[in-house]
Input
Amino acid sequence: MGAALLDGAIVWLIAILAIAVAAIPSTIIGTGGTPLWLLVSFLSAWAYYAATMVREGERNGQTLGKQLCNIRVVKEDGTPVTAGFAVLRDFVVKGLLFGFIGGSFFFPWLLNYLWPLWDDKNQALHDKMLASYVVKA
Output
């Protein structure tokens, strides 16, 4: 949970910076750039996970938050985490499925993060869906 909070703070910072940069042309030109800055902030924030999780060697599977908490994501089959897997895990499953859709009901989001407390493999539901584990680095 600590890594998720740290990564969330980093993602928000990236999003705020991207919004500020994307909003500059609309204030200079005078056009309504709202859709542009929303898209830029959305894509740049989630690109963080793909960019950090695919590092080579011992940092593979680690975001900066996970690195600070000394944990990493590993795939069940032992292959390295790829950008596609990172986007699928953190954006599609955690972000859209459990965060956006499940978050509107709160219970699925909460259940996802509490699941490791009683699971024999300490996996969250999103890790079970994707055959991945969070382990000590």
About this structure: The beta strands are 71-75, 132-136.
